[in-house]
Specification:
Length: 347
């Protein structure tokens, strides 16, 4: 692993490509932007005596925003405060592949001590840019399938971090508990995301093992969601969405279609329940961020990513949207309600 905190000769120039900062806590995410939309950060005037931490977030949606906030907060807890004891360069690629490449090149050219990728495509872009600089995975469902590590136990290279794999079997059991008459579950995901492909396959296998039929449809971008969701909703009793950044970004399009057919959406991610999904057993996204930040701090302190096992995210919780349940006429059984976190009206 490279020697950390080495001197740097060059001064950072602003990246030409437009990259917007993540939504959320403006202090935590360095989300001040200039009039042209380029990110503002203490990285714009590097102090060569401080560690440089590059963070790339794939796009803006609540789940990833909360992960980013958690990372920044945990780094601060570990003593890495932007502009004081570290240079934290937080960039949001807004889902654009060319932005991801530019951001990765920006971090490498500025001799980053560590890089953090929030979501699989962001982490893949960083991995493509460097096989030397330590890379921390944040919100990567299947790092092995995404060709980022050799194995979770022994990553084997310059990459380690946290997997956001959710308890899919528990999620399907929850569907059966809330919809005991359901027979066919729709699975909707983006075929452009490696994490979604592996998650969808697992979902199909779990559903079959529980005696459920599935209808699976894919999108390649948010522009496809309305038409594909319309077709899917007409064939199923509920829609399941695995961990998928494309669907998360276009959830506001999916929910009205499902509502029109009076069927619920069961997302894998907790923040998507508050945005209109019915329920999930999933991860607390902010806690996932703090766990990722803790891994980053360990690597900055000298741990070797090649032998540092990839962790599974902790903090599983049952989340139910009471307003959506009321809207769809679904009664939440008492034994489930007593263990749930309720969001939405009537929480």
């Amino acid at each position: 692993m490279k020697k950390l905190f080495r001197a740097r000769a060059s001064i950072l120039t602003l990246m030409a490509a437009t990259v917007l900062m993540a939504c959320g806590n403006s202090d935590a995410n360095n989300s001040d932007t200039s009039s042209d939309g380029s990110a503002a950060s203490s990285a714009d005037s590097i102090n060569p005596d401080l560690p440089y931490i590059g963070i790339m977030q794939l796009t803006t949606h609540p789940a990833l925003d909360q992960i980013g906030e958690g990372i920044i907060d945990q780094l601060e807890e570990a003593g890495y405060v932007d502009g004081e004891t570290a240079t934290i360069d937080f960039q949001n690629a807004q889902g654009d592949q060319s932005n991801m490449q530019s951001i990765a090149e920006r971090f490498v050219s500025n001799d980053a001590d560590i890089m953090i990728g929030i979501a699989t495509p962001a982490a893949q872009a960083l991995a493509n840019a460097s096989s030397d600089i330590p890379i921390i995975l944040g919100a990567i469902t299947d790092p092995v399938a995404a060709s980022l590590v050799d194995s979770l136990e022994k990553p084997g290279g310059n990459i380690t971090g946290v997997s956001d794999k959710t308890p899919a079997r528990d999620q399907f059991v929850l569907i059966q508990q809330l919809l005991p008459e359901a027979e066919t579950i729709g699975i909707l995901y983006s075929s452009a995301e490696d994490n979604s492909i592996s998650s969808a396959k697992e979902a199909e296998e779990i559903a079959a093992s529980l005696g459920l039929k599935t209808v699976t449809k894919t999108v390649t971008s948010t522009n496809d969601i309305a038409q594909v969701a319309e077709s899917l909703a007409s064939e199923v009793d509920a829609i399941y969405v695995p961990t998928d950044n494309t669907i998360a970004s276009g959830l506001a399009t999916l929910i009205p279609v499902a509502d029109a057919y009076n069927i619920p959406v069961f997302p894998a991610v907790d923040t998507m329940v508050e945005e209109g999904g019915l329920a999930t057993i999933g991860l607390n996204q902010y806690a996932l961020g703090t766990q990722t930040g803790a891994v980053a701090a360990d690597i900055l302190a000298g741990a070797d990513p090649a032998t540092y096992p990839v962790q599974y995210a902790t903090g599983i919780q049952l989340v139910i949207n009471q307003a959506k349940a009321d809207q769809l006429g679904i009664t939440i059984p008492d034994d489930i309600a007593q263990n749930a976190i309720f969001v939405g009206e009537g929480e």
